[in-house]
Every structure is written in C-alpha cells, then in structure tokens.
Amino acid sequence: MLRQTKLAVILAVLLIPVTVHAAFEHERILNADIGAPILDVTANPAGDLVFVLTPGEVLIYSTDDQTVLDRIPVAGPFDRIAYQDEDRLVLTAAKPSRINVIRFSRIFDIDLSGRAVKGPPDARVTLVVFDDYQ
C-alpha cells in the first residue's frame, strides 16, 4: 500500500503541469521614419544593416549610426526583399512575376586629414598603407 502511495505521488508530481513565467528584455535597435510605404524588410546576419524595400528604391539603414547609408534605385513593382550571401539582395514581385538580384559593395571612408599624402586630394583612387615600424 505504501509503495502504491509513493508511486501515485511521484506520478502526480510528474504529471502536474508546472507554470513557468517567461520574461523578455528588449532594446530598440532602429527607430526611423521612412516617409514612404514599406513593402518588405530584411537584415544582414550581423544585424548592423537593415534593408527596407519601398516603391522605387531600397533604403540601407545602419543600426549602429541610426542613419540611411545609401539608397538603391529599383525599376519595377517589387514587393519582397531577401538578403543572400554577403553582397546580394534578391527582389521579387508576384504580379508581374519577376526577380531581380542586386549585388552591392560597402564603401568605407578613411579620414586622411593630418596624414602624409602624395597627389591631388580629389583623386579618384586613394591607396592607403598602414605600417607599423616597431
């Protein structure tokens, strides 16, 4: 009898649903007024770039700087966007049935003020060498 009571208590404890309360912390990473209808949104895996598809263009937002880095003009009525690989965006449209793959490259500005330079400051190409003579 005692054994059956122990078994009944163990089964009761195992079968009684346990209420678990979950909580989430949240942080607003990007808050922007787009100024145009948003058709779709995607982000790169690192989460530092957000691509917003609007009619006629893709806006590239930096979550670090909270600014628009660039705008890519888009010809056609696309309504979906997806991030692919490291340098591609895939745009699709349901009607008419279309797909457009855009390759992009990020260009970084390098501040050369106070550095030794050779040639005109408005040259189309600038080569920068970082050396450590220690």
TrEMBL record:
Signal keyword on record: yes
Keywords assigned by UniProt, alphabetized: Signal
First and last residue of the signal peptide: 1-22
Protein name as it appears in the record: Pilus formation protein N-terminal domain-containing protein
Biological source species: Desulfosarcina alkanivorans
